[in-house]
C-alpha cells in the first residue's frame, strides 16, 4: 500500500497481489486491509473509491495487479479554534502525529476549556501546513499528566489505531513518584474502577466498576517517596492515580486522591515510553521522552 497526501485529500493506494484475486473491492478492502464498513459507505457516497484510476463499485471483481485507491476527503476540525500553542512534536508523517504533551494542558477542548488545549494547537499546526484534518487523539492523558500521546490524521488511521488499541498492541510505560517507601520490588494491582457516586471527576475502586489492571516496578526508594514505572493493561480514567492511592501510595501532588503538593504542584505522572505498529506499514515504532523539568527537579533534590 502507498499513501499520497495533498492539501485537499489523502489517497490510500492498494495493489492486488496474485494470491488475492478471488476478492471484489469490498472484500479486498475489508478482509485484507481492515477498512471499516462505515468508511467504505462514506467513500461510496462521494465516489472516493477508484479502481485503476476510475471510480468503481464495491462489488467490482479484482484481478492481480489492479490498483484500488481510497480518496479520503479533506475534513473540518469540528469547530476547534486554531491557536499558535507550543507543543513538542516527537514524530509526524502522513498518518499520525506523536507529541510530548506538557502538563497543565487539556487534550481536547471542552465547555470549561474551549481554548488553550492541545487540540487548538494541533489544528493550528496543520493549518500552517495548508491542510485541514479532524483532531483524533488515539490515547488520552489527564490535564496535569505529561508525556507521549498519539493523534491520528485521518479516519483510516484512527480506525486502524483503534484496532491496535483494542487488541493490546499499544504499549505504554509511565513513570511516577508516589508517597511512602514501597517495600515490594514489583507488583500488579487488579481492581475495578468506577466513577464516584457524588462526583463528576473522581473515580474509586469498586466491585461494580470496570475491570482495571496496573503493573508497577520500583525504580528507586527515597526518604519520603518512591519512583515507580507503571504499565497499563486497561485505560480507565485516572487509573494509575486511583490504583496507587488504593494501595496506600498516592502520587505526589495528587491532592484529589490523597497526595500532597509539598514537593510538586501537580500529580507526578509522566507517559514516558510508547510503542505500537504503524497504522499503514505495520512496522513497530518506539518513542521515549525525558522526565519533565518539575519531576526532574524533585529527583535532583534527592542528590
Automatic annotation (TrEMBL):
GO molecular function: catalytic activity, acting on RNA; pseudouridine synthase activity; RNA binding
Key word Isomerase present: yes
Active site per database record: 142
Pfam families reported in the protein's UniProt record: PseudoU_synth_2
Alphabetical UniProt keywords: Isomerase
GO biological process terms held by the UniProt record: enzyme-directed rRNA pseudouridine synthesis
E.C. no: 5.4.99.-
Repressor among keywords: no
Domain Pseudouridine synthase RsuA/RluA-like: start-end pairs: 95-246
Principal EC category: isomerase
Catalytic activity of the protein: a uridine in RNA = a pseudouridine in RNA
Family stated for the protein in its record: Belongs to the pseudouridine synthase RluA family.
Functional description taken from the UniProt entry: Responsible for synthesis of pseudouridine from uracil.
Name of this chain's protein: Pseudouridine synthase
Natural source organism: Aneurinibacillus tyrosinisolvens
Taxonomic placement: Bacteria, Bacillati, Bacillota, Bacilli, Bacillales
Amino acid at each position: 500500500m502507498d499513501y499520497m497526501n495533498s492539501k485537499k485529500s489523502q489517497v490510500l493506494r492498494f495493489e492486488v497481489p496474485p494470491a488475492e484475486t478471488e476478492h471484489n473491492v469490498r472484500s479486498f478492502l475489508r478482509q485484507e486491509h481492515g477498512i471499516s464498513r462505515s468508511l467504505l459507505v462514506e467513500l461510496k457516497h462521494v465516489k472516493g473509491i477508484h479502481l485503476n484510476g476510475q471510480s468503481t463499485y464495491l462489488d467490482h471483481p479484482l484481478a492481480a495487479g489492479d490498483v484500488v485507491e481510497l480518496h479520503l476527503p479533506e475534513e473540518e476540525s469540528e469547530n476547534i479554534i486554531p491557536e499558535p500553542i507550543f507543543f513538542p512534536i516527537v514524530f509526524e508523517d502522513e498518518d499520525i502525529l506523536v507529541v510530548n504533551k506538557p502538563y497543565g494542558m487539556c487534550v481536547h477542548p471542552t465547555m470549561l476549556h474551549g481554548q488553550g488545549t492541545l487540540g487548538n494547537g494541533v489544528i493550528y499546526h496543520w493549518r500552517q501546513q495548508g491542510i485541514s484534518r479532524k483532531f483524533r487523539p488515539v490515547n488520552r492523558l489527564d490535564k496535569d499528566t505529561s508525556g507521549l500521546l498519539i493523534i491520528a490524521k485521518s479516519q483510516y488511521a484512527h480506525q486502524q489505531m483503534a484496532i491496535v488499541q483494542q487488541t493490546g498492541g499499544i504499549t505504554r510505560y509511565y513513570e511516577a513518584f508516589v508517597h511512602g517507601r514501597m517495600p515490594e520490588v514489583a507488583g500488579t494491582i487488579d481492581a475495578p474502577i468506577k466513577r464516584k457516586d457524588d462526583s463528576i471527576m473522581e473515580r474509586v475502586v469498586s466491585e461494580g466498576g470496570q475491570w482495571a489492571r496496573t503493573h508497577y516496578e520500583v525504580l528507586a526508594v527515597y526518604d519520603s517517596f518512591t519512583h515507580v514505572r507503571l504499565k497499563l493493561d486497561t485505560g480507565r480514567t485516572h487509573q494509575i492515580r486511583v490504583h496507587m492511592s488504593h494501595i496506600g501510595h498516592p502520587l505526589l501532588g495528587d491532592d484529589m486522591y490523597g497526595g500532597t503538593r509539598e514537593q510538586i504542584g501537580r500529580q507526578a505522572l509522566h507517559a514516558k515510553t510508547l510503542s505500537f505498529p504503524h497504522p499503514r506499514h505495520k512496522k513497530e515504532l518506539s518513542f521515549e521522552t525525558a522526565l519533565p523539568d518539575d519531576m526532574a527537579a524533585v529527583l535532583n533534590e534527592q542528590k
